[in-house]
């Protein structure tokens, strides 16, 4: 389940080397509207470009069918290679398309967003949204190689940068206070690419260490779902209202709510809870909900992939770096935590 | 990649035991029009039945989407279970649906056809047809348990029985002459269920031994493709003409052609080639092609999943039980073999 993960800001040469190592037949590149230009600039010889529409609402069956059709029409065989150039949307759906085309062709991920770099591109989870539920259909399929850089981030919209940064906060919470402090004190307005690559490397390493111990999420890997039970519910809720929010923003708000729950259940320190909540309130603003929305949100949480037997299932922390997976929550507890989330976010 | 394979004609009790062992949350049953009645008679408590249209032309994206939707609407979680009751079409598409729903829920196969029992239900290959190409999209995903019986075969149309029998001939060719002789001398018009279960067990064992050594088909497993490079081309060709043929019939005719190629390349004994060809001619009749069809057939063979770099790739035999995988064939060789196939089938 392990990928070869390369951290480098010299993407074209490292990518070419990875492709040459694989000795593929035909090479296909998947990109979306926004990343097609980057894909072309990578200069992969004799590659066919497949383009899909950008945005999470296009991470759907239509886009998947388009990729399969293009691979088929382009004469892809089991020895062909798909290079996914883009954010998590492209690497998630591209990885799934590759893993299921002729029962599996290899793929390489070149994440171009911070979220893609620190989360989606590494760890083998692929998939797409189905009937408004996030990543409802998917597979565990590691990329052959992932090339992680910070060189595409300077042109990234600030919203997308923040979206990825939320996952880095999550990894830091799972790692320890020093890593968390470094992030909460970082200057998000301007950063040095090499320093950012170091922060990304530290963040990805947290994920890799967890995934390598539990690739198919039967135990420890569930720790990586911190912030995501509530976060996914926020995200699906926003989508169903026709006002989608960036994944990482939903995770940021989910983290605040789940740290509240962590305090309620396991005495997670309020100092750190407030530091994180203030940081997120300041940088991400609030996700506006009222108590009339709680029923819908609770309903969405019971549909989460991690949910068993229709219960609400969560990962919580007793301290930074001390996760408790498979915590079952009552609707009353979650409602109480949502009340406090609204206070912390000044809603 | 191994399933728990049970050979028994007491299906309801063995199935119930297998379900109880898994301790699933909700249980869903997948069947097609023809097997829904059998599925109901199995008496699985509190199971939700999902029905799809029967026939290989419904092993498509629409049926798959229907299964995913029904699982979702029925509140399936990662701890739900899908029981696939039917022929290879049902177990292939059901296994793929289960393996990709929420990145994978367990499934049990209860094959009701001979083809399903000896081929599709065991070995972890799942998938569906896409743009007229067979099993173009799929995954390697073993059933948790497979319950193989002969009790559903007595009501099977003779065509379907023969379709499965062709795969048994293939397994026997990969095993040795004694197993082949027993099959070629069997009375196909009437059989004892327990004796048939023994023949099926011997046949499935050949497949299991091969699959266990190479689950994802990187080497030895390709031996199981004997008959299938030409067979799949026949099948796709028939489908594209709007005159589908049963899978096993296509394999039977493919076996004859590939045994001809085996003789041409590796000196496979003509005595056995003629015995097999006579048996197939007598029981299956001919698949009618003319030399005008060769180009289309060759084109289809280069699109086969086993094909690398657009070449025609085949498994051939030098003797019964002595396969040679990854044999690359020229169009001229295949055309010559198709000429001899037509002679042997008296076309």
List keywords for this structure.
homodimer; 347 residues; Dehydroquinate synthase-like, alpha domain; Rossmann fold; 13 helices; 18% strand
Structure characterization notes:
2 copies of one chain form a homodimer. Chain A is an alpha/beta fold. The radius of gyration of chain A is 20 Å and the shape is globular. Chain A contains 13 helices and 10 strands. Chain A has 2 domains: 4-155, Rossmann fold, CATH 3.40.50.1970; 158-195 and 202-344, Dehydroquinate synthase-like, alpha domain (Up-down Bundle), CATH 1.20.1090. Chain A has helices at 11-22, 36-41, 61-73, 88-100, 114-120, 158-175, 177-184, 193-213, 228-240, 247-266, 270-284, 294-302, 331-344, and strands at 4-7, 27-32, 47-52, 81-86, 107-111, 125-130, 133-140, 145-148, 312-319, 322-329. In chain A, helix 9 packs across helix 10 (247-266) and helix 10 (247-266) packs across helix 13. Chains A and B meet through helix 3, helix 4, strand 6 and strand 7 of A and helix 3, helix 4, strand 6 and strand 7 of B.
Topology at a glance:
2 copies of one chain form a homodimer.
Chain A: E1 4-7, H1 11-22, E2 27-32, H2 36-41, E3 47-52, H3 61-73, E4 81-86, H4 88-100, E5 107-111, H5 114-120, E6 125-130, E7 133-140, E8 145-148, H6 158-175, H7 177-184, H8 193-213, H9 228-240, H10 247-266, H11 270-284, H12 294-302, E9 312-319, E10 322-329, H13 331-344
Parallel strand pairs in A: 1-8, 2-3, 2-4, 4-5, 5-8
Antiparallel strand pairs in A: 6-7, 9-10
Helix pairs in contact in A: 3-4, 4-5, 5-6, 5-8, 6-7, 6-8, 6-10, 9-10, 9-12, 10-11, 10-13
